[in-house]
Amino acid sequence: MTPTSAIPLAVYALLIGITSAVLWVWTPYTLPPALLSGGALLFAVLAFVVALRGQGEAHADEAERTVPDLSFATVGVALGIINILVGLYLGLYLILIGAGILAFGLGGWIREARAQRRAREIVDAP
Question: Which of 14, 17, 97, 110 is the most exposed place for a label (fewest CB within 10 A)?
């Protein structure tokens, strides 16, 4: 875990916080924005803890590490699955969009796996 591992969590906390702020302004109800504010605070604290834990680690074998720090392909797979599931309720157009996102995410996973294999071969070569 590196300090950059906290970046997606912090961005998610920011997005939830912005949504919460908009709801505090435009809705007469207090429960939805309060829940979103709590979620944003929770993710901000989690990002802070992950960043602190990542700074304390020594990365002596950084040159031999072949695992990516962040995987945008995983995010694509997750968003594709979510869009497909929501599309089951809202319509075929969202299912097709989700299938396209899922296909790009799976393609990214394959690309990452091949790149990791090549990197291991380069490191293991004498």
Answer: 110
Interhelix angle 7-26/31-55, rounded to 10 degrees, is: 160
In angstroms, the CA 71 to CA 79 distance is 13
Residue entry with tokens 């302004």:
25
Whether 47 and 76 share a structural domain: no
Q: Which two tokens stand for residue 56?
A: 């304390």
Query: 7 by DSSP, 3-state: which?
Result: helix
What pLDDT, in 10s, does the model give residues 89-114?
889 999 999 999 999 999 999 998 89
Q: How many structural domains compose the chain?
A: 2
Angle made by CA atoms 47, 79, 32, in degrees to the nearest 5: 60
* pTM: predicted TM-score of the whole model, two decimal places: 0.51
Locate 6 and state its tokens: 């906290």
Q: Token digits for 71?
A: 């995987």
